[in-house]
């Protein structure tokens, strides 16, 4: 494969580009990731008597990057689909809903300080990009989801060996208008635009500051997102939302702390959320989280943690699959009754060698608010995963999860005649080669 890049057109093009603009590095990459799933109550308790779903989804990505004097460029195109989704003779021009091809990333980063200044760095990054901060709880690329998450944004980055300070800005519009800035936040297909199932933001601003210490790190986040106001037009049947130019403003702020001492490591975070959300509701919510882990040796580690989110809190644009159970019952695509969440969990990891890793998590879930006529307990989830790395470019992953749900969970998830036993299993093949070309 390397010989093809050395002798073929993909080698000639970056070579010509770099020869015109000085020395640099050009990277090419690809990813083919398939995930075969058995869903038997994933996302919500299944109905009694329903049959499991079984399918294979595939992510196909092509990536290219350029790193040269005071400039970095990144490009990722991807195609996301389910095997058999398209007939082999489908006319994709007239069936746009089946078109899974999209531009995931396209950004440029310009270094504003001189390259000889080694102790500080000021840069401007602009374009379609992933926003990933801290543990991805509030801002993450949602890589578990085949299509992932990205933002069209401008980012100013100031970094030293100890400090990191980023300021970001995004402003969304549906198309090029001749007048006005009215924005329809409901994307085609009515897919949810954020973690908790809401519409897309019209604009977003954030400031992130992080300070490294000897064995720990402390960061601060202040994020504001705005959503278009609306009114109900009852002159049409059925009544419809009409979007306005003015906005509701919501803000989220808090601290994240992580550290390590010998074999003991920990994370803790606290966030507050206020303002008005996309549904025109005033919010005053909080998120508290803490996790403690101990490494017994190089092979075995275990930890315990607890999360609390109040009913008003929305975990923004993070990666909930990483935290609140792999079966994605909470804060994934749809709300769950605005009752908030308590999650108490144990986590274990076993790594007998460099290629194989296995893990097991146990979650006990409760609502944060009372549920009329029912208790707060929502259920218990067990997640078991195993990963085997064949080479640096090829990896296999498998997992099984079981959720013992309660009537309280079925009530807030609005599932009648729900089963108390729910299952989910998957097998993933991840092929991800990369090539580095120096010129």
TrEMBL record:
Protein name: Alginate export family protein
Originating species: Chitinophaga varians
InterPro entries linked to this entry: Alginate_export_dom, Alginate_Permeability_Chnl
Taxonomic path: Bacteria, Pseudomonadati, Bacteroidota, Chitinophagia, Chitinophagales
The organism's place on the tree of life at top rank: Bacteria
Residue intervals of the Alginate export domain: 27-165
């Amino acid at each position: 494969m390397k010989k093809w890049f050395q002798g073929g057109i993909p080698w000639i093009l970056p070579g010509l580009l770099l020869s015109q603009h000085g020395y640099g590095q050009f990277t090419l990459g690809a990813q083919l990731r398939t995930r075969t799933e058995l869903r038997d109550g994933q996302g919500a308790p299944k109905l009694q008597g329903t049959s499991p779903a079984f399918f294979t989804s595939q992510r196909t990505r092509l990536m290219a990057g350029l790193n040269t004097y005071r400039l970095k460029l990144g490009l990722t195109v991807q195609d996301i689909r389910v095997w058999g989704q398209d007939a082999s003779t489908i006319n994709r021009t007239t069936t746009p809903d089946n078109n899974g091809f999209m531009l995931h990333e396209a950004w440029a980063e310009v270094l504003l300080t001189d390259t000889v200044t080694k102790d500080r760095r000021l840069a401007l990054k602009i374009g379609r990009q992933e926003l990933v901060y801290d543990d991805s709880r509030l801002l993450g690329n949602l890589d578990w989801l085949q299509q992932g998450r990205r933002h069209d944004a401008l980012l100013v980055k100031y970094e030293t060996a100890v400090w990191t300070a980023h300021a970001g800005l995004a402003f969304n519009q549906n198309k090029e208008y001749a007048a006005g800035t009215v924005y329809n936040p409901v994307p085609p297909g009515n897919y949810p635009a954020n973690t908790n199932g809401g519409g897309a933001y019209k604009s977003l601003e954030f400031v992130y500051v992080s300070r490294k210490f000897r064995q720990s790190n402390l960061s601060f986040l202040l994020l504001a997102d705005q959503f278009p106001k609306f009114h109900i037009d009852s002159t049409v049947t059925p009544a419809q939302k009409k979007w306005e130019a003015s906005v509701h403003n919501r803000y989220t702020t808090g601290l994240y702390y992580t550290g390590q001492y010998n074999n003991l490591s920990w994370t803790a975070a606290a966030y507050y959320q206020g303002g008005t959300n996309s549904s025109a509701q005033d919010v005053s919510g909080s998120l508290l989280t803490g996790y403690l882990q101990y490494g017994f040796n190089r092979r075995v580690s275990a930890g315990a943690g607890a999360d609390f989110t109040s009913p008003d809190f929305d975990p923004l644009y993070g990666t909930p699959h990483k935290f609140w159970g792999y079966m994605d019952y909470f804060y994934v695509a749809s709300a769950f009754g605005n009752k908030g969440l308590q999650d108490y969990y144990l986590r274990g990891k076993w790594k007998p060698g460099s290629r194989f890793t296995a893990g097991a998590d146990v979650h006990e879930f409760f609502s944060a608010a009372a549920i009329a006529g029912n208790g707060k307990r929502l259920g218990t989830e067990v997640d078991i995963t195993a990963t085997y790395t064949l080479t640096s470019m090829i990896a296999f992953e498998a997992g099984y999860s079981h959720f013992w749900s309660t009537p309280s969970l079925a009530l807030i998830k609005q599932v009648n005649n729900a089963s108390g036993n729910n299952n989910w299993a998957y097998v993933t093949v991840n092929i991800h080669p990369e090539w580095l070309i120096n010129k």
